[in-house]
Amino acid sequence: MPLIICCLLYSNLVVAQIGGNQVYNTNSSNNSTSSPILNNSINSTDSTLTIGGSILFAKKADYYLFTLGVKDHSKTVVECNKKLNNRIDAFLADLKGIGINEDDLYIDFVSQIRVYDHEIEGNTVTEFFDGFVIRKNIIIQITDLNKIENIIELASLREFYDIIKVEYYNDDVEAIYDDLFKEVMEIIEEKKARFLKYSSVDMGKKYRIASVNFTKYNPKSSYAQYNEAFETSSVTTRYTRDYIKKDVRKEKTFYYEGAENKLGVDRIKDDISPVVGIQYVMGVSVIYEIEK
Q1: Rounded to an integer, what distance in angstroms lies between the CA atom of residue 68 and that of residue 150?
Q2: Structural domains in the chain, sorted by start
C-alpha cells in the first residue's frame, strides 16, 4: 500500500511540473498535444536511397538592435521638430552615462503628419486643425542585453514609452551554416551505415544533394500566448438596465516556445539554455544510387 501511494503522489507531481498554467490556453495551435512530425526518414526504391538529416542549433546573440519610438506635438513643424530634438538630445546624453555612444545610435525619421481635433457646442461638432506630430525612431545597438533595463528607465524620464522591438543578430552566420552542414552530413552517413547494416543491397558511387534548407528563428517569432489562468464563480440573477456588471480584467501572458517543440529534428545542439537566443535549423537530403 505505501508503494502504491508513493507512485500516485509521484505521478501527480510529474503532471504538475510538466503542465503549468499554459494548459489554460484555448488556442488549439499553441496547445496541441500531438508530437512533432519527423520528416527526416529514409526512403528507398530499387534504384535510389534518399536520406534526410537535420539539426537545430541555439546560439546567444552577439548584438541586439533596440528600437524606441518617439514623438512630439506642436502647432508648427519647426517648433515640433525642435521640441522633439531637444528631448532626444537629452536622452542621448543620458545613454552616454551607461556606455552607449553616438556610434551605437541611429535616428530614423518616420513621419510628419497634421493632426485634427473636435469642438462640441450643443449639437454641433466642429473639426479644427491642431498642429503637427513628428515621429522618429531611435535605433540603439547593444551587446549587453541587461542594458535594456537601463535604456527603458532613461527613456521614461524623457517620456518615451514606445518600445517597438528588440532584434537579435549573430556575426558569424556563414560559419554557423558551414558547421551545421558538416554535422548534418555526419548524421546522414550514420543513417546510411545503419541502413546498409540491415539491408542486402550495394551502394553505387554516385550521389547528390537533393535539398538544403537553412532556417533562422528569431525570438520575436517564438513567443506563444495564453490568457491568464483563472476560474470564476457563476451567478444567476435577473439583470435590468439599472444594474451594471463589471468584470475583473484578465491578463494575457506570453512565454518563449522554442522551435525544438515544433519541429522534428535528428539532433539538438543547444549550449545556451535557458537563455533565449537565435535558433538555426539545417536540413539536408541526399540521394544515393543503388547498384542493381
Answers
A1: 13
A2: 20-61+171-291 (no CATH), 63-169 (3.30.70.2970)
